[in-house]
Amino acid sequence: MSIVQITSIAEKSSIKILYDKVFNSNDPMGEIFQEDVSYRLLICPIPSPLLDEELLQAVAYAAKLVGDEYFYLSEVEGKSIQSFHDENHWKIHVDVTYEEYTGTTPPILFENAIYSPSGLWGILVAHSDFAVLGGNEIFVNAIKEKYSNWVYGLDMFLKKWEFNAKHNIGDFRWMPTFFRHLKITHHFKQP
């Protein structure tokens, strides 16, 4: 079976340690990654709260390249890190099909973190149609090689949020910290 829900408290405690190796926060608009997760990408748009098929295949390819045979997915939206044990979690084999990924039971409905059992990489999927990906150089370069839409991520993200700003939708005070954390040197144009 390519995807298995994790239900035991012991296994959830084990994957929490792995989660903490990669993620500093479960806020997709915050300082997401631990400092040693040094390569970062902004992916936009995505069909939140799921990855699209091409990105899922790229993640599986990159995971295999860094030696991972599976990865974890944990729902993290709006929850404190202390409630990690109460959330839905899955162990996903790198050979998962898109149909298996999109057909989980229970379904993936919330912002989620996808991450490595080796602590080398992770992706935080936001409900705002974007994801933030971080990892080592090998992992991120493999994503760039296999996922052609990565080059549009920043531009699409800026268009979306500049539209929102023009129409007074949302608060943008988080953006300078977000861009700095992702190592993006861009100044958001707020009308």
Structural features, described:
The chain is of the alpha+beta class and 191 residues long. 33% of the residues lie in helices and 18% in strands. The protein is built from 6 helices and 7 strands. Strands 1-4-3-5-6-7-2 form a 7-stranded antiparallel beta sheet. A hairpin with a 5-residue loop joins strand 6 and strand 7 (131-135). Helix 2 runs antiparallel to helix 4. The radius of gyration is 16 Å and the shape is globular. The mean pLDDT is 89.
Assembly state of the chains shown? single chain
The largest sheet has its strands arranged as 1-4-3-5-6-7-2
Query: Percentage of helical residues?
Result: 25-40%
Order of helices and strands: EHEHEEHEEEHHH
Strand segment count? 7
- Biggest sheet details: 7 strands, antiparallel
> Terminal Cα separation, in Å?
50 Å
Question: Residue-averaged pLDDT, rounded?
Answer: 89
- Poorly predicted runs of 5 or more residues: none
How many alpha or pi helices?
A: 6
Radius of gyration: 16 Å
**What's the shape?**
globular
Structural class of the helices, strands and pairings? alpha+beta
**Strand residue percentage:** 15-25%
Provide key terms for this protein.
single chain, 191 residues, alpha+beta, seven-stranded antiparallel sheet, 6 helices, 7 strands, globular
